[in-house]
Amino acid sequence: MVFSGDVKTPKGLQELNTFLADNSYIEGFVPSKADVSVFDALGKAPAGDYVHIQRWYRHIASFSAGERSSWGGQALPQVAGGKPTVAAAPAKADDDDDDVDLFGSEDEEESAEAAKLKEERLAAYNAKKSKKPALIAKSSIILDVKPWDDETDMKEMEKSVRSIEMDGLLWGAAKLVPVGYGIKKLQICCVIEDDKVSVDELQEKIQDFEDFVQSVDIAAFNKI
Asked: Which terminus of the chain, N or C, has less C-beta within 10 A?
């Protein structure tokens, strides 16, 4: 059972007082927006012999406005004889929706700014990356250069080998390693840029020193 009278008239107040004599709330067994509608429409507890309304009004007034706004149920606009009631809540909801839309617009603007900033940073990173020198593939090689016999001048042989100059070739340390019968081989290190120096071509250039070199072998080959 739901009260539906006009509380702005003496007849409506009497009907409400009679209704509340047997009911704790305007609708159902818990406070709802229907109670808030009547509460707002009354504005204050009516004077006179309306004891049940006065008891109900004090009870509803004991709740804060925030608590009352959280109650469920439906508002009763028909009881609002001039006073604003909870029926105005949908309009408030619309206002809230507008606020949400506005915040949404701000979020969209922030997202657009964030996307623009990300693009700028990415472009700056790509530009910086493009200016960096490309990594150069290099290899470390140890060559075994063998002489004809034990009478070969090993110092001159090493000098001849080191005289080879190629773009991307860097000679390193060298040493003489015994191979037997008093013969020693020249073991020499070098670093080459893979795109510029051909190992086969380098070996051929060394073997061109026929007075000193019998053969050239690769003892070790490592990518750097």
From this structure: N
Give the SS3 label for residue 139: strand
* Whole-model pTM over 0.90: no
| 8 Å CB contact between 104 and 112 | no
- Axis-axis angle for helices 51-61, 33-42 (nearest 10): 110
pLDDT band at 161 (very low <50, low <70, confident <90, very high): very high
CA pair distance 147, 140, nearest whole angstrom: 23
| DSSP letter string, 10-27 | HHHHHHHHHHHHH-SSSB
Angle between helices 10-22 and 51-61 (to 10 degrees): 70
Rounded Cα–Cα distance for residues 212 and 156 (Å): 8
Domains and CATH numbers, the chain: 10-70 (1.20.1050.10), 138-223 (3.30.70.60)
Q: Read off the pLDDT of residues 75-108 as tens digits, 9 standing for 90 and up.
A: 877 665 444 333 334 444 454 555 555 555 556 6
* Placement of tokens 């053969």 in the chain: 215
Q: Are 112 and 194 in contact (CB under 8 A)?
A: no
Of 130, 153, 137, 151, the C-alpha closest to 209 is 153
